[in-house]
Amino acid sequence: MTQDSLFRVATPPGPAGLQPFDTELIAQIANDLFRDPEQAGPAPVPPPAAVPWQGRAAAPALPAEVAPGSFYFLDEAAATPPSAAPGWNLAPSYLELTAPPVLDPQPGPFDPVSLRRDFPILEQRVHGKPLVWLDNAATTQKPRAVIDRISDFYRHEYSNIHRAAHALAARSTDAYEGAREKARRFLNAGSVQEIVFVRGATEAINLVAQSWGRRNVGPGDEIVITWLEHHANIVPWQQLAAEKGAKLRVAPIDDRGQVLLDEYEKLLNPRTRLVSFAHVSNALGTVNPVREMAAMAHRHGAVVLVDGAQSVSHLAVDVQALGADFYAFSGHKVFGPTGIGVLYGRSDLLEATPPWQGGGNMIADVTFERTVFQPPPARFEAGTGNIADAVGLGAALDYVTRAGLANISRHEHDLLTYATEGLSCIPGLRIIGTAREKAGVLSFVLDGYRSEEVGAALDQEGIALRSGHHCAQPALRRFGVETSVRPSFALYNTRADIDALTAAVAQLARSRP
């Protein structure tokens, strides 16, 4: 394998009576880390002096995106001298790896038909019809880049991370921490220490409720949410309020599904400890004015959590510009794997927040008398994390970034407008939620049919969408319905998908019993 960094072995003088490290042996070990295992012949050993590495050849044993940066276990060894022998003051040899900067993926020309070909699952037929995937608010499909990245990770890089001085641990750790950096860039967080890996947005919200909330919410305090919330942004706060003797207050919405900002602000007062609301409603598609709502909450001294599960695949997110103190999203909603997500937390808040779960990885020192916890984010990542899917999430964020969120937003707005116009012409169909600012989510009911019947009939036409209460029962009940049919759009959908949906629903309306 060819190499693209500068390699040198530095050997500081050792303590009296100790032999210096064998620089040639260390060079050989480091070179082996980067060798292509299929390359014939022994790997050359570079001399101790700096030797330039000439570019990188794509090799499955060490994907290009993993290599830049330094190895975790080598950094740790250099920073923490061994303490097994009292009185040693050993400054060990170390490897310095200097790589070119990793450039952010740049958006290219946007072609949804071409992008669709990146998703193998969309090539199939269901009930003899081409699959039309319009269930994106529930989960998005996975591009080949994500599938291949996870497969390559398991085939060539997999190990547990951090505390092991071997090559696979280094590769795995670099891939995992590289994904954290990608999440930081994606959200424009200030530091990777503000990015906590979790199972998804639900776990992220529960983490804040059970760790930050238990410490900072007390009797008589208030938590404010809105009528638009997913159950995952209602139930944890109900539980916390019941446990602490606090009060849960709910901001109302208007007949279009928009938060009534005047009423919302009236709920805020010096007793308000936390405000938590969705960036985008999963049931109605309403895009909330996050920056304005966060500023109102901050004027009253409240902390703001934003549920970004429905926004990250549709809109560019800048947590600093939005004023979010916490921001949560799930990987599977943004073309990544299930079982992985991100909690962004402002650094000062995370530093002052106790851990939620205890175990390995999140500790600095343990005795039978007391435990010293790691700083964030490790403090909140007890046990072995979902390493491979974190790497897959990084690949998904790269994919979305290359497609361009501005391109995606424009495309989905076109689909939303086109679908709204087409469905609105069908007799007996009522759209639920008509906010001025919407993402690519539609909810509707059809006279004479239960939502589940509509969903089952559309499935026979190869159209996959969601029918039910969408884990947002209060929002739907605000409009006098228990369930709705919810098509939702993504970058790989086209107007042809909307035509298929509209034609199938129109046929149902004509066949109304």
Search tags:
513 residues; seven-stranded mixed β-sheet
Task: Walk me through this protein's architecture.
- The longest helix has 21 residues.
- The termini are far apart.
- The protein is built from 16 helices and 20 strands.
- The N terminus is likely disordered.
- Helix 13 packs parallel to helix 16.
Indicate the structural class: alpha/beta
Question: What is the CA–CA distance across the termini?
Answer: 68 Å
Strand percentage: 5-15%
- Assembly annotation: single chain
Mean pLDDT, as a whole number? 85
The radius of gyration computed from the alpha-carbon positions, rounded to a whole number of angstroms, is 26 Å
Query: In terms of per-residue confidence, which ranges show pLDDT below 50 for 5 or more consecutive residues?
Result: 1-23, 29-104
Query: Could you give the order of strands across the largest sheet?
Result: 7-13-12-11-10-8-9
Shape: globular
How many strand elements?
A: 20
Number of helices: 16
What share of the residues lie within helices?
25-40%
Tell me about the largest β-sheet. Answer: 7 strands, mixed
What order do the helices and strands come in, and which of them pair?
Blueprint: E1 6-10, H1 23-33, E2 51-52, H2 72-79, E3 94-98, H3 112-116, E4 125-126, E5 129-130, E6 132-133, H4 144-156, H5 167-187, E7 195-198, H6 201-216, E8 222-226, H7 235-244, E9 247-251, H8 261-267, E10 272-278, H9 290-299, E11 303-307, H10 319-322, E12 326-330, E13 341-345, H11 347-351, E14 363-366, E15 371-373, H12 387-403, H13 405-424, E16 429-431, E17 444-446, H14 451-459, E18 463-464, E19 466-468, H15 473-477, E20 484-486, H16 495-510
